[in-house]
Design brief:
This protein has 279 residues and is an alpha/beta fold. It has a single domain, classed as Alpha-Beta Barrel (TIM Barrel). Strands 3-2-1-9-8 form a five-stranded parallel sheet. A four-stranded mixed sheet has the order 4-5-7-6, covered by helices on one side. Strand 4, helix 6 and strand 5 form a beta-alpha-beta unit.
């Protein structure tokens, strides 16, 4: 099984007040890669915003029809590490949701807030808020910043009706945090009983590979590393779960952010593997 997943931390760069003002200031100061043309184009049409790259993901992911596609959306209060919080009732969210729903096999999941990582009682509230916005049940979750601190986090997830969590990974190194490439049922350490919640280990995340604070790999090094993980997962009959953010595949990204071409290369590799062996 292959899961192609995307965390939607922000839908657009310049279509909220702080982003618009910041873009204008950086443009006038000649720094930050922003241009007034980009800012104004974004205001006129969300598809012109530099981080509204969902058409790219939809096209690339469709090339692996057997893969499950999951988009995780925030539904918190947008404070601190959770800023910005896009309006779930707003036009931009509605546009993206409509486009994603035009593709078959796309699942909407909750991107539980950083705040919920320390206050798990927020999980059912955020879940309910997202379900109201999408008009359907939400059963998948991934914590913002991959933040899980205590077994009670999973207890709250299971208690709120979540059936699948995709958080388990170390942000600073790609690999198998659970010691396995296979999905496992979460066992409550207090009751020692398996629950309905399944944990899906994350194989690789974009920023883990390229960020100098983490692995700091070149595009070539990252390709060898990720394809090695995929091959090892295939060998042991596990799941491949990839996480790429819409903000890292902008066409204007600099050389240190190589993820647009890299993601296409990984999709090509998956297609080759799927042709020789069914995941």
């Amino acid at each position: 099984m292959v899961y192609l997943t995307h965390d939607v931390d922000s839908i657009a760069s310049y279509r909220h007040l702080r982003g618009f003002v910041g873009g204008c200031v950086r443009s006038l100061a000649g720094r930050g890669g922003a241009s007034m043309r980009d800012v104004l184009a974004s205001v006129r049409d969300i598809h012109a915003d530099p981080i509204y790259t969902f058409d790219f993901f939809r096209a690339e992911d469709a090339r692996v029809p057997s893969a499950e596609k999951v988009y995780f959306f925030k539904a918190g209060r947008g404070r601190g590490h959770d800023y910005p919080q896009y309006g779930l009732g707003g036009r931009d969210f509605s546009t993206l949701l409509r486009e994603l729903r035009s593709d078959s096999g796309t699942t909407i999941g909750l991107h539980a807030s950083y705040e919920a990582g320390s206050r798990p009682l927020l999980i059912p509230k955020e879940k309910e808020r997202l379900e109201k916005a999408v008009g359907a049940a939400v059963c998948c979750n991934r914590y913002h910043f991959l933040r899980t601190l205590h077994p009670s986090d999973f207890r709250w997830l299971a208690g709120s009706g979540m059936t699948d969590d995709f958080t388990i990974a170390y942000p600073d190194v790609a690999g198998f945090r659970l010691g396995t490439c296979r999905a496992v049922r979460w066992i409550d350490p207090e009751t020692r009983q398996p629950t309905r919640l399944t944990l899906h280990p994350l194989t690789a995340m974009d920023c883990t590979l390229s960020d100098s604070r983490y692995m700091g790999l070149s595009q070539r090094e990252a390709y060898g590393y990720v394809t090695g993980l995929i091959s090892r997962t295939e060998e042991h009959g596990g799941e491949v779960t990839l996480l790429w953010h819409n903000s890292t595949v902008t066409s204007s990204s600099g050389s240190s952010f190589y993820h647009r071409q890299f993601y296409s290369d990984i999709i090509n590799f998956l297609i080759e593997r799927c042709q020789t062996r069914e995941y």
